[in-house]
TrEMBL record:
It comes from the Bacteria. Residues 20-71 form the DUF6966 domain. It comes from Sulfuriroseicoccus oceanibius. This is DUF6966 domain-containing protein.
Amino acid sequence: MSESKTVEATLMRLIHLLEKAKEDNWVIYFGNALERLQQGNTEKAKQVIRRAYGGMCSFNDLGLNFITDKEYEEVLKLRNELWELSKPTSLIKKIFG
């Protein structure tokens, strides 16, 4: 699976869980990243994703209600995956894989 398809699948699952948790602001925020990704602007989508992780009241500080413990654990896993996936791809990695 390509990097952008992996990011897209991760975002879609995360958005689904955030909708279930009634986290409308985060649904809109990550929906914006998903839209940019689907328009082919992978690097801009990654920038949007990374911005969610810094500062007070960031995505790292999120506590969720209205979902099961198993779903909450999945959100934590997806959060970590998205952080790793959103890191800038170095030119060397692009060239040499």
